[in-house]
Amino acid sequence: MAVPKRKSSKARKNKRRSNVWKISDPAFSKCPNCGALTVPHRVCKNCGFYKGREVIKMDPEVNA
């Protein structure tokens, strides 16, 4: 049975384990209503639309 020659330090162990959980950059798509970049499956922060209908009422003064 294989036995480690030396104890692995906490830093070395954590550095090795951290590479498994790396996340990629989020994918962005254009909002069909206003053309702003949004995260898929989320309400557009610029216009408040999701799947072609207005979900959140947005102030026109704030977006201008």
Cα separation of the termini: 69 Å
**Major β-sheet profile:** 2 strands, antiparallel
Number of helices: 2
What sort of overall outline do the alpha carbons produce when their principal axes are compared? rod-shaped
Give me the Rg, rounded: 23 Å
Which series of helices and strands comes N to C? HEEEEH
Helix content range of the residues, please?
Answer: 10-25%
Please report the total strand number as a whole number: 4
Strand order of the largest sheet: 1-2
Class by helix and strand content?
A: alpha+beta
Account of the protein in words:
The chain is of the alpha+beta class and 64 residues long. The protein has a domain at 27-64. The chain contains 2 helices and 4 strands. The strands form 2 sheets. A two-stranded antiparallel ribbon has the order 1-2. It has a two-stranded antiparallel sheet with strand order 3-4. Strand 1 (29-30) and strand 2 form a beta hairpin. The longest helix has 9 residues, at 10-18. The model has no long low-confidence stretch (mean pLDDT 86).
Task: Reconstruct the topology from this structure.
Layout: H1 10-18, E1 29-30, E2 37-38, E3 49-50, E4 53-54, H2 60-63
Antiparallel strand pairs: 1-2, 3-4
Quick recap of the structure?
By secondary structure, the chain is α+β, with helices and mostly antiparallel strands. The protein has helices spanning 10-18, 60-63, and strands spanning 29-30, 37-38, 49-50, 53-54. It is built from 2 helices and 4 strands.
